[in-house]
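Following up on my earlier thread - several people asked me to post the actual chain instead of describing it. Fair enough. Here it is, all 232 residues.
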Amino acid sequence: MIKFDVITIFPEIFTSYLKESLIARAQAKKLIKINIHNLRFWTNDSHKTVDDRPFGGGLGMVLKVEPIFKAVKALKNKTWNIKHETKTKVVLFTPRGKKFDQKLAYKLSKLDQIIFICGRYEGVDERVAKNIADLELSIGDYDLMGGELPAMVSIEAISRLVSGVLGKPQLLKERITKKGGFIEYAQYTRPEVFRARLARGGKATWQVPKILLSGDHKKIEDWKKKHSKAIE
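Reply from S.P.:
Thanks for posting it. Predicted structure:
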């Protein structure tokens, strides 16, 4: 079982997501465990302050290092100064981070625990990236309002690589490349012929490729290979 610990100041964002579809089933089967932690729990003042103005000036507020340090220390299940003792990674989401891809998802799926730090506002104190996080991740070349969506994306991509999450083992096996990448190919279902009514009275007929209806498994496999793309 892989354990995900998510540190956020907006824990309710995850409520609906965790109760739906395969993610909910995987938790029920104890194939994965997802814990959402409110960063404000690790503050000391009555206002539960997690951010402050940046030194040197600038727009917006910055998440403080102290509550994040306390949160990660509490969640790591090991002595703080013995880094990398177990299969645990601390991930900070930032647009400056390493690009998250299928190959990295495959590597992370072999861990026992992943702690995700979700930034907000203008950013996170740089000492978190330098001294607390093992890995800085980005899910794309764009800026979001926080790290909660990247955490959901990462959890889903990693979880589907855990044996049993998708149900039938072959569903996962046939899609993984030798390098840990992913194979995506064109797929069709009923009806065999779809007649579409287009705008301004136009019509179109869209058909399933005949080879997929042939029953010839060798030709079908060849067709899939021809119309597939390996995402490494």
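The chain has two domains: 2-168, 174-231. That should answer part of your original question.
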